[in-house]
Design a protein that fits this description.
Elements (H helix, E strand, L loop, with lengths): L4 H14 L9 E3 L6 E6 L2 E7 L12 H14 L14 H13 L4 E5 L2 H15 L4 E5 L4 H10 L3 E4 L4 H9 L7 E6 L11 H10 L3 E5 L14 H4 L8 E5 L9 E5 L1 H10 L1 H4 L6 H16 L2 H19 L12 E4 L3 H15 L1 E2 L2 E2 L10 E4 L7 H17 L7
Helix pairs in contact: 2-11, 3-11, 4-5, 6-7, 13-14
């Protein structure tokens, strides 16, 4: 008897739908100069909406400096990179961007990847393999890319309670002093919006001779005098061995990277399959990211306005009695607590109010903590905030959802 593969595929999808976790992509058209507005295509034609869940945190994907650099590179170089970095995919744009990123984080060298996911997966899996007997200590809420990288390394993993420095200290103390150890953590955790105690983590790692790996993807461009992230803001960049970041969020383009010593970067460049066998990002993307990084090194206006917008939205939502979850960063999560109702609220906001925000359900967050995750930008106006709060208030009442205590 033959296997009915299509039926098995359908069964897997039906299970997601029954749990309220099935995702439907919104067919959006971003329009230059009008962000965070976009055009969405649907059965009844096109209409304009407001996007409230973009990771283009500062609107740099629309910035004239970035667009001009990309146009210039496209006209000069063409579309693609031409291959992997080892073959023919290294250009002056890649080299210049890596130098700029190393300078941003106060490190000797940097290495570009096709995405932040790949930079985490490739680097962590390689690091733990090349350090004999290495044990990796991972924060309990680390991103899936970090978890996958650690898993692929084959190294033993110890999970420490989220942002619990005492628990990390305890676990590190159980290992022999001469054993290689990697402490892997993030600065801004994007689903709850909390920020790690970087100085305390570094102090514990140093006391146990551990190597530190920091994911700053939700912080680069956003925090610190030059936008290097929370480690720059807190004055601990020099105490972190590897700083990983992305070019696809605050910098508004695409790609990921790591920064560290020359030796560290050379090891990843030479050993990581996720780097070696992947076509490099196009010179157009590298040029745009370079322009964005350079601009945000010297311009604090976007960061300051962004923090004000986030604080304003949190305050307005709380005043309306909506269950805003505690967040010390720019992330604004609103608790729903049920996957089906979370999706229903998201669908209603889009259908009735032209507001686009995606439901965040398991496995991205634990079951029972489903939420809407808002990411205000400097380009969200007071009128947009007014419309969002009014719409959420109405939809919360329609769905009889719990209000803030």
């Amino acid at each position: 008897m033959s296997v009915d593969y299509q039926r098995l595929f359908g069964t897997a999808i039906d299970a997601l739908k029954a749990e309220g976790r099935y995702r439907v992509f919104a067919n959006l058209a971003r329009q230059r100069g009008s962000f965070p507005e976009a055009v969405i295509a649907g059965p009844e034609g096109e209409r304009r909406i407001i996007v409230w869940c973009s990771n283009d945190y500062l609107g740099m994907g629309q910035h004239p400096v970035v667009l001009a650099a990309m146009h210039e590179a496209l006209d000069a170089c063409g579309a693609g990179s031409g291959g992997t970095r080892n073959i023919s995919g290294t250009t002056r744009h890649h080299v210049a961007l890596e130098q700029e990123l190393a300078d941003l984080h106060g490190k000797e060298a940097a290495l570009l990847f096709s995405s932040g996911y790949v930079s985490n997966e490739a680097t962590l899996s390689t690091l733990a393999r090349v350090l004999p007997g290495c044990v990796v200590y991972s924060d309990a809420l680390n991103h899936a890319s970090m978890i996958e990288g650690i898993r692929r390394s084959g190294a033993p993993k110890r999970v420490w309670r989220h942002n619990d420095v005492a628990d990390l200290d305890r676990l590190l103390g159980e290992a022999p002093a001469d054993l290689p150890k990697i402490v892997a953590f993030e600065s801004v955790y994007s689903m709850d919006g909390d920020i790690a105690p970087l100085a305390e983590i570094c102090a514990v790692a140093e006391a146990h001779g551990a190597f530190t790996y920091l994911d700053e993807v939700h912080a680069v461009g956003m925090y610190g005098p030059r936008g290097a992230g929370v480690a720059e803001r807190d004055g601990v960049m020099h105490r972190v061995d590897v700083i990983e970041g992305t070019l696809g969020k605050a910098y508004g383009v695409m790609g990921g990277y790591i920064t560290g010593t020359h030796a560290l970067v050379d090891v990843i460049r030479s050993y990581a399959p996720g780097f070696i066998f992947t076509t490099s990002i196009s010179p157009v993307l590298a040029a745009g990211a370079l322009a964005s990084v350079r601009h945000l090194k010297t311009s604090s206006g976007e960061r300051l306005h962004h923090q004000e917008r986030a604080a304003t939205l949190k305050r307005r939502l709380a005043a309306a009695g909506l269950p805003v979850m505690p967040s010390e960063s720019h992330i604004v999560p609103v608790h729903v607590g049920d996957p089906v109702r979370c999706k229903a609220v998201s669908d209603r906001l889009l259908a009735a109010h032209d507001i686009y925000v995606q439901p965040i359900n398991y496995p991205t967050v634990p079951r029972g903590t489903e939420r809407l995750r808002f990411t205000p930008t400097p380009l969200h106006t007071d009128a947009m905030i007014d419309a969002l709060v009014t719409a959420l208030d109405q939809v919360w009442t329609e769905h009889a959802l719990a209000r803030a205590a």
